Amino acid sequence: MEPERLTKADFDEIVERLDAFWGERDLSALHHPMFIHEFGDSALVIRDEHGGVAAYLLGLIVPQRRLGYVHLVAVRQDRRGQGLGRRLYERFRELARERGCHTLKAITTPGNAASVAFHSALGMDALEAGDYAGIGRPRVVFTAALEDDRQGTRR
Fold first, then answer.
1. Residues 116, 86, 55, 30: what is their CA dihedral angle, to the nearest 10 degrees?
2. How far apart are CA 64 and CA 85, in angstroms?
3. What is the DSSP string of 58-70?
4. What is the 3 state secondary structure string of 10-28?
5. If you average pLDDT over every residue of the chain, what do you get?
6. Which residue blocks in 99-153 are alpha helix, DSSP H?
7. Rounded distance, CA 111 to CA 140, Å?
8. Above 80 in pLDDT, residue 155?
9. Which of 7, 21, 38, 105 sits most deeply, having the most CB atoms within 10 A of its CB?
10. Interval 2-44: pLDDT, tens
11. By CB neighbour count within 10 A (0-12 exposed, 13-18 middle, 19+ buried), where does 102 fall?
12. In whole angstroms, what is the distance from residue 41 CA to residue 64 CA?
């Protein structure tokens, strides 16, 4: 099970089965179709042995800022603990480096302990930014410098 490019069929399956990934949290508004139609070349999926979506990552490559931004990463509840989220991030890091990015970024809410722990375990730096999403709406901003594989150094 290796990360591949997310297809429209994968996206449709995800939005029909959000509860399998997010439980009772309604994150439908965060699953905008632009992530498949406009930014599909930086959206990734890992399929299970039956071809169903086991995990996915919706990301953006921002060439002007040399930034790879992870909007969402999710693992189906019955597939957690198998390293699928980490594999998706590793492949997205490679993709971002291949496209000239120097930095990886992700954002979560301060109360999302699972997300904070996951991103910290990936070695990302965390900074709580007050009013990031509007007045009284802080976010935890994660960043990581991407290594230049050719030189073995951080950019």
1. 40
2. 27
3. EEEEEGGGTEEEE
4. HHHHHHHCHHHHHCCCCCH
5. 93
6. 113-121
7. 9
8. no
9. 21
10. 999 999 999 999 999 999 999 999 999 999 999 999 988 999 9
11. middle
12. 17
pTM of this prediction? Answer: 0.91
The C-alpha atoms of residue 106 and residue 42 are separated, in whole angstroms, by 14
Instruction: Quickly tell me which residue has 């999710």 as its tokens.
Output: 74
DSSP state of 134: S
pLDDT at 153 exceeding the cut of 90: no
Eight-state DSSP code of residue 83 = S
Token output for 75: 């693992």
| Measured distance CA(21)–CA(54) in Å, rounded | 9
* Span 4-154 CATH architecture: 3-Layer(aba) Sandwich (3.40)
